[in-house]
Amino acid sequence: MTDISADALGWTQQDLDVHPAGLDALRIRVYRRGTGPIPLVLVHGATDSALAWTPLARALSNDFSIVAYDGPSHGDSETAGGGVHTAFHYLPALVQQLGLDRPVVLGHSWGGACVAAAIDSSPELFRCAILEDPPWTDSAEASAGGAALARIRETMSFERSAPASELSAYIEERFAHWTDEDRALAFHSKLSFQKHSSWVSFPGSPGYEWGWIVPRLKLDVLLITGGDADNPSPRVITPALAAKVAGLSDRIRVETIESAGHGIHREAQDQFVALVTSFAEAHAA
Fold it and tell me: What's the pTM value of the predicted model, to 2 decimals?
């Protein structure tokens, strides 16, 4: 891909000053596409950007009116301190400022943690949520989910500082099983992330702990996990943890796509689209 711009990829864009109560206002880059009847907000993972959602958003655009945004300290949004401690507050504030009518919200990885915290703090703003392999682990199985999370941290450290040539070679090798477009968008996102050098990754905020968020869910949640532990980007949530999470609330449903690792929407797009669409349509009223 030679032109990775919003126009070339089929998005419209705007900058919005988002000001959650008690936090600094930040300029957030917002993208839109789609003509469907169901509003959908996409929240990307750490070191990604809104444009990285493009292939999935293209597949969903007939059924959804889609909003994606560069999270704080990502893409073309402003740099913020606090890392995951404060990032989730910008999601409900953004929904309110855009005047969205109880959208479905979907988050991948770190974005899934943001979504979980946001629906816990402001459930009235959303109709349902979809979490794609959020970075939830269990101390009882640290050798499984914890190891995957440790690999993610190590990867993020490399992506923060690697020269462009090394970053490109790394993405081409590690994500050879992704499409050319997904690899190009990942490279663009991670290169953009490097300008936000102050962002704090995974400090371990208790606001992201599934153990106390899940039992008090007020919305229906679809948790989509990968089944491939040997993937170059392996799943984080193990089957044992998925079962434990599901046992904490009858509002959460777990679906596993066995062929995918952590990047489920990239590696099994058709199955992922089918799950997202059916779940959202069941909550369209």
Answer: 0.93
